[in-house]
Fold:
Amino acid sequence: MSETELGGSRFGRINHNAYWANAHLDTRFHIDADMVDDNYNHLQDCIKHPTTGLLAAKKNRTYNYPDCYQRNFEELMSVPKIKNSADVFVDKFKKLYPKTGKARNFLINTDSIVLNYVKPIKKSLRRTLFRLLNI
Structure:
């Protein structure tokens, strides 16, 4: 299936929100109202579409300022609106995927599945160990 459906991108809004959520986190500047709003929008996308939201977040993740990213993330999680949305997302993810949640996270974190296109399966030792031990 192509990236575009009926003249638009299938995941355009989710990808846009994930991009700006990461752009505000991975910067030397401290959090502000725009950062809170963009991250809240991304969390709402993740609540509505958990796997797609995680894929978009992984696709748009940059590593320009890792220390600043961690600092901004901690400051952002101290905002009650964001903390509540993150908790709702984690609860929904666990409720929707009680048995396959670990596998979904593994596939997303190892770039085995990506947003907007299908990747062929790669046989690797890590994949085999995950299947055998279900880590």
